[in-house]
Amino acid sequence: MWKNYFKLSIRNLLRSKTSSFIHIAGLSIGLVSTLMILFYVDFERSYEDMHSNADRIFRITLDIYNGNEFVLNDAQTYQLLGQELTEQMPEVEDYVRMFPMEPIEFKAPSTDVKSYESKVYLVDESILDIFSFDFVNDRAISKFSEPFKVIISETLANKYFGKSDAVGEMLQFPYNPTPLEVVAVMQDLPQNTHMKYDLLMSHVTLPIFEEWYAGNLWNANNEFTFLLMNEGVDLADFNEKLVKYSKDNVQMENEIVLAEPIKDIHLYSNKTYEPEVNGSAQTVNFMFLIGILVMALAWINYINLSTAKAMDRAKEVGVRKTIGSSKMQLIMQFYSEAFLINLISAAVSVILFLSLLPYFKNFSGVDLSVHHFGELKLLLLVMGLVLFGTLFSGFYPAIMLSGFKPMLVLKGKFSNTGKGVVLRKSLVYVQFIASVVLLCVSFAVFKQMKFLNSQDLGVAIDNTLVIRTPQNVGSDSLHTNLIQKFENLVEQKNWVRAVTQASSVPGSETKDMNSTGSVSKLGEDEKEGGYTYYHYGVKENYPEVMGLEFLAGSPLEPETPSEKVLISETAMHQLGFNSPEGAVGQKISFYRSDKPAEIHGVFKNFHQRSPKEAYMPLMLWKDNTTRNFIIKLNTQDSQMAVAGLEDLWKQVYPGFSYDYYFLNDMYNAQYHQEQQFGKTVLLFTFLSIVIAGLGLYGLSAFMVQMRTKEIGVRTVLGASKPSLMWILSKGFLGIVGLSGLIAIPISYYLIQSWLGNYANRFDVGLDLFAIPSVFILLVAMLTVGSQTLKSAYANPVDSLKSE
User: Fold this and answer.
1) 310 Cβ neighbours under 8 A, 6+ residues apart
2) Under 8 Å between Cβ of 660 and 465
3) For labelling alongside 621, which of 74, 321, 340, 444 has CA 20 to 30 A away?
4) Residue 135: Cβ-neighbour burial (10 angstroms; 0-12, 13-18, 19+)
């Protein structure tokens, strides 16, 4: 029986080649798109799955207040917090601290290879019990509890020592003459973890880093703290206990400790001092919705064309019922056709998917692979889509076509039902509403990126090269002399406009700056609570070189005392000053020396971070031995400048790595996630429009075919070609136009929800909805017009002969 069903199905597919092609093409595109999106969504939701204890790991964070006013969430906490919680709360089984280091230059004495590394953490040995590792070799891992021991990634092992097994090798670093011993080599971490580290140093080594190590362990919150919880701990109940603990802890005034599951961090956490820019659950959910929509559009095409071709199949059904076919047999016949089309489409889509996956991986910037997703999981997903697609897309056509009354059909009295027409119109509405919504969202992402890139940053970042300053090159006087020597050599080049220095640069992560909440007007009680201020050292000419605008006061001078500081407009307001002039000369409790700080000038707000975020309350203080040379170029020949500066570097700093980057590249990297999201949405929007266009093409072609005699009669009676085109296409164009109007409020809601993530955003205007709607209307006009034009110019004699 099934053999006969499939024989008939194949014959029907071959007999209607155009509609079969449209069915298979639409479903294949839909399946390929859905598979890619589901791979992307699965990857984004798989963060931290590498850890066997992932469901039991919580990260501790701080909510900071100014009195009753919420200020910010901080991802980093105090050194003693993990230990205290483990001792005081029975739910906590263990803890690990992870202290992030700024980029450090390492050198392998055995190979003389040296390089800066940025993914470096000092960690407790308990990390080996809490997190999961795959080791290349861990034969000396028991020594990790001792100072000056490190675990490195396989990539670093090959980079420094030319081999994967580097256990027992040594690494030198600038902060201590004692070398670091490699006690284990771990496999490179996958991309789907928010804590990406290449080198782990034993936490007991921390006291040698006097610049960061605080004798008062409740004085600075600079560490990530993770807790390993007992089985079955309820997050809400545990957070209630943490709130009570925070209020009872005298060390933590105006701060609340909270926990969050490690698996939620990537998509749901957006705190200060995050180890990396996290993803967005909103973005992932929207992508998942796009995947459902694209697949649904393809299935809708099948339903539409199948029901539209009811007249074509009506006589077949009538004859088969007359000779004894039951309704169930007819239903199974039409379901077998739906299954065959879905199966062929699935086979085509899997081939296309496997061929295109490497390109989509590069396009999306996400490390997607069949191995990560799982071969069996992929097979089950494809078969699930085939079966569901068969049931979903085949249900209405099978029920409708099998329900024709044979006597009416054979007498020629059958016509498409009103219900069938309403269904087809409704499905076309759904297709084009979805297409307009997706196009509006894509347009909004494009406009937001253009808006952010067009903002006046308040700071000059173009044509600017940043070189990392070597640290611990010798005595302070030698360090200062080498800095001055390098600057003098650089300034002599006619392709260099200016040179300055700073501990941080615009666009750098918050972790690359200092922060403190202990800033207030002199005489006020700083323990009453305050805002968090970000600050870093700069050379006195930094404001001038970087184009900062002063509202009051004056820039720093070489003779300016070290206790004088510059503050931003936002910092001025948060400190309680009413005007820039009124702030200049005032004393604040910001101790960079043995004296209170004095406000030397107030500069206009600039975007230290991207315009996505609100202005930071910034404070700049004078420091002539900072971590970065900032070089403004007078030439567009960047390669020549990079090579020329490298020659000068080797003269002054032989043996030290020449580590540089262009400032605008680093700054623009903050938009990477939005740009990738925009490109991906645009790709699948285009594919959804192609699917909708295919369906409209097939539907309009069939509808024109059904009205062939009408076209012939109208032509003989003198109807003009434009009037024929209008008569044949107005119904479709009306549906598409109304779809655009219905899509506008849906698009508006989605766009406003997405824009809520930005402190600065473009003004949503009518053009945002008008342009996509008009574009979709033009696509529909071209699609329908190609069919109606062909019919309008056909020979009326041939039209009148048509059956």
Assistant:
1) 400, 401, 404, 416, 420
2) yes
3) 74
4) middle
Cα 62 from chain centre: 24
Are 546 and 460 contacting, i.e. CB atoms less than 8 angstroms apart?
yes
**Phi, psi for residue 458 in degrees, rounded to 5:** 80, 5
Whether the CB-CB separation of 701 and 307 falls below 8 Å is answered with: no
Within 13 A of 373's CA, how many CA atoms are on the CB side?
Answer: 25
In the structure encoding, which two tokens stand for residue 752, read together?
């406003």
3-state secondary structure of 147: coil
Residue 94's H or E segment, with its range, is strand 92-100
Please count the other Cβ atoms lying within 10 Å of the Cβ belonging to residue 209: 16
Separation between Cα atoms, residue 642 and residue 443, nearest integer Å: 38
pLDDT in tens, 545-572: 999 999 999 888 888 888 889 999 999 9
The enclosing H or E element of 59 equals: strand 57-66
By the 8 A CB rule, do 81 and 257 touch? Answer: yes
- Beta-bridge partners for 173: 176
Angle at 513 between CA 146 and CA 172, to 5 degrees: 35
Assign 3-class secondary structure to 489-556: HHHCCCCEEEEEEECCCCCCCHHHCEEECCCCECCCCHHHCCCCEEEEEECCCHHHHCCCCEEEECCC
DSSP class of 203? G
CA-based Rg of the chain, rounded to a whole angstrom?
Answer: 34
Taken in order 478, 480, 482, 488, the sign of the CA dihedral is negative
Burial of 506-515, coded b for 16+ CB within 10 Å and e otherwise, reads bbbbbbbbbb
The whole-number pLDDT of residue 406 equals 54
Which pair of tokens denotes residue 604? 């206009």
How far does Cα 105 stand from its chain's mean position? Answer: 30
Structure tokens at 685: 């929007």
What torsion do the CA atoms of 314, 315, 319, 324 make, to the nearest 10 degrees?
0
What amino acid is encoded at 637 in this protein? Answer: D
What local confidence, expressed as pLDDT, does residue 153 receive?
Answer: 97
Q: Of the candidates 198, 123, 111, 195, which has an alpha carbon nearest to the alpha carbon of residue 156?
A: 198
**What stretches in the chain show pLDDT beneath 50?**
409-415
Beta strand extents in 279-383 (DSSP E only): none
**Across-strand partners of 137?**
185
At 769 the three-state DSSP class reads: helix
Does residue 170 contact residue 179 with C-beta atoms inside 8 Å? yes
* Rounded-to-integer distance, Cα 558 and Cα 542, Å: 12
Question: Domain-by-domain residue ranges, the chain?
Answer: 61-268, 430-455+672-803, 464-670
C-beta of residue 664 within 8 angstroms of C-beta of residue 462: yes
Instruction: Output b/e per residue, 266-302; b: 16+ Cβ within 10 A.
Output: bbebebbbbbeebbbeebbebbbbbbebbbbbbbbbb
Nearest-angstrom CA–CA distance, 29 and 22: 11
pLDDT at 410: 46
Residue entry with tokens 């909004």: 444
β-sheet bridge partners, residue 500: 630
Output the six-digit token pair for 512: 């690359």
Amino acid letter, residue 180: L
Residues 413-462 have pLDDT tens digits of: 444 555 556 666 777 788 888 888 888 988 888 888 888 888 889 999 99
Q: Tokens standing for 320? A: 């088969």
Do 36 and 303 contact (CB within 8 A), yes or no?
A: no
Output the pLDDT for position 505: 92
CA angle (475, 146, 52) in 5-degree steps: 120
pLDDT value of position 686:
84
Instruction: Give whole-number Cα distances, 80 to 83, 96, 220, 243, in Å.
Output: 5, 11, 10, 17
Q: How far apart are CA 377 and CA 379, in angstroms?
A: 5
Determine the Cα–Cα distance for residues 243 and 178; give it in Å rounded to an integer: 42
**The whole model's pTM is what?**
0.84
Strands 104-108 and 113-117: antiparallel
